[in-house]
Amino acid sequence: MKKFCKAALALAAMAVSLAAATTATWEMNTYQDFLKGRFEGLSLDHDGRLTVAPKLETVFSSGQPTIWSIARAPDGSIYAGTGHRGRVYQITASGASSLVWTSDQPEIFAVAVDSAGVVYAATSPDGKVYRIEKGKATEFFAPQAKYIWSLAFAKDGTLFVGAGNPGNIYRVDKAGKAETYYETGQSHVTALAFDSRGNVLAGTEPNGILYRISAKDKAFVLYNANLPEIRSIIPMPDGAIYASALGGSVANRTTPLSTSLSSPLNVTVTAPTTSITVTDSGNSQADTEIKPRANAPSAAAPQPVQQLGPASPLTEIPGVDKSAIYKINPDDTVETLWTSKEENVYSMAVEPNGSLYFATDGQGRLYKLGADRKATLMVETNEGEATRLLDGPGGLVAATGDMGKLFRLADGAGTSGSYESPVHDSGSVARWGRITWRGSSGGKVQIATRTGNSARADKTWSDWSEPLTNPQDSIIRSPNARFIQWRANLDGPGAAIENVSIAYLPQNNPPVIRSISVSMQPNSGAALKSAASSTSPAYSVTVTDTGDSFTPAGTPTQTLSHGSGSQIQITWQADDPDGDRLLYSLYFRGEDEKEWKLLRANIPENSLLLDGDVLADGRYYFRVIASDQPSNAANVARTDELVSSPVLIDNTPPVVSLSAPRRNNDHVEVDADVVDQTSPLRRCEYSLDAGPWTPVEAADGVTDGPHEQFHIAIGRLRAGEHLLVVRAYDTANNAGLAKVVIP
User: 254-275 in b/e burial notation, b at 16+ Cβ within 10 A?
Assistant: First the structure.
């Protein structure tokens, strides 16, 4: 049995090695490679290693589309504000939940709890702050603003309110007496916090400015980000400040905003400033089609009024950061700790040990940023976005959108998890080889694959294969197809996987010959030689693989003529969809011949020169065969061929015969009989006494046959002897001449 297994493995290895020249591999090695997949109970460290994630517990499910805001009360309970039905819930430390209040406004973007446990909730789009105590809500502050995005209590119990439209900061004392604390000049105040000295920190939109406000109407710009919106602010005891910004590739929004914490605005980017249009009517629907990302224009007109709605597509600006995390040091210097072109950072939290966590809209992901500034994907909630983070007793709590839930990240690791890779496109139907990976000595790792011929893994795909457990010698049994995906299941402590590689042999696609051109070239000093390029002469013909030619209509016969020592140049254009190297063979045959004759085989170039005299007068066809054998095994090599339109080679000029002149006083008549053996005539003209050429048309009205007669009549001819020269051209531009003396 052991000998049989070794023989089978040897045969399998030989099968792969036979096609080694074109065998391809799909490798996933780096952090960025794995980040494109889908995680379920697994973490991804910055070295591209998958491990079992900390346990993620569902603390509360609101049944609402999103939880916009959360705040912790002194008794340890959490209050959550939702959209799009404007509800406030209480979740106790034991996990019990209750509905506290339902607003008549659809969104509650901010909640806060004072030291006495009294809850404050801010509603939008009719911006008001309500005080909720003992289950009863009373209006506490109405700033005449469209939106209220942020609430924060100072140490003395004063409430600070960050509003939108206008973007002002208000200070409200315990009795509800309010004043405008600072007018930012921005459209929205999206985040509020207090630094270690009691200064107000405010993040704004649309110019991404972070303010430090030390007193009423007295502010200093700590940082002006290159992203439109400051979303989250975390002050540290040592005076440092963490700030997150978003909006780089969603700054030009052409549809209503998705259920995210990003301001529900249509933002129009112009140079050098950014303008916005606030929306509060209309609906949008999520677009689930895969579409190319559109390049946003550099400037756009303000957008019409629209409503906060469900998830909708966002216009991307390729290559521009979507979000970033900054650290403003105590000396006001700024460091960029993390950026992303794919995900928006919505919230941050710092644990007592100093670890910085942040939440994004990438399937509701939670990341941990280490001291080395390398991010670890801790866990994926698989919700649309993680909107808020809150640290405290019991662990890190995350609020999500898509479905408004609260999750808690426990200290202990989970027991198992899975990972689904992104779908890989092999370019054509492929034959699968082995899948290999590096695993750990602890725990259990199993991999399965599935394949299909649609870009998305849908019901037309194959089922997941049987589990594969050998990290170095697992043969993929999924059907041959164009697309493939793998799934890893990790079970038990210490289970890990990295460096996953799939070998496959794509189906070889044939080359395509696009066109053939035949032209006459001056003698280059060598006959029957190849050339890499050519210049188009006055007379040439091109035939394409669709039968179209570069002429107004039809595919006419091309007529070629040459002088002494001229050369015929045949040029073709071809390509290979797989990028394979090509060799060409060129054939010809005359119109009255049955078999193709080989001119040259295995030509690496796409042009060939022939001595113009090797082909006598007549009509010829040229055939080019392209082969991709240089890049493929002989049994899978593919070819394509194309035949040119007919090419008429005419080396012989017409024969011109003139009658004796017939003179009557000053009037002379001469008849010309013109015959061409190969091609039709196209033009006839005469010259008197070496004067200018004068055209003359055939006697039947059209010069179009190989045999034509012309009547030349000259009037007002002075007395004396004269010389008449007649010149006729065929379609190959060969000229025949004759002369007659007029007495």
Answer: ebbbbbbbbbbbbbbbeeeebb
Which candidate, 619, 623, 677, places its Cα nearest to that of 653? Answer: 677
User: 466: exposed, middle or buried (C-beta count within 10 Å: 0-12, 13-18, 19+)?
Assistant: exposed
Q: What top-level class would CATH report for the domain 68-251+258-265+316-344?
A: mainly beta
d(CA 568, CA 540) in angstroms, rounded, equals: 10
pTM for the structure as a whole: 0.68
| CATH number of the structural domain 22-53+417-506 | 2.60.120
From CA 310, how far away is CA 436, in angstroms rounded? Answer: 42
Domain ranges of the chain: 22-53+417-506, 68-251+258-265+316-344, 512-649, 655-742
* Paired sense of beta strands 345-350 and 334-340, if any: unpaired
Cβ atoms 182, 169 nearer than 8 A = yes
- Output the pLDDT for position 134: 86
Element (H, E) at 636: none
Q: What is the mean pLDDT of each run of 10 residues along the chain (743 residues)?
A: 42 38 87 95 96 94 96 95 95 93 96 96 96 93 96 97 97 96 97 96 97 97 96 95 78 34 36 34 34 35 33 48 95 95 94 88 92 91 94 89 92 90 94 95 93 96 97 96 97 94 93 93 51 38 49 61 73 93 96 94 95 88 96 90 93 94 94 94 96 95 95 94 96 92 93
Burial of 732 (0-12, 13-18, 19+ CB in 10 A): buried
Tens of pLDDT, residue by residue over 382-405, are: 998 999 999 888 789 999 998 999
Top-tier CATH class for 512-649: mainly beta
| 652 token code pair | 């012989």
Class of the domain covering 655-742: mainly beta
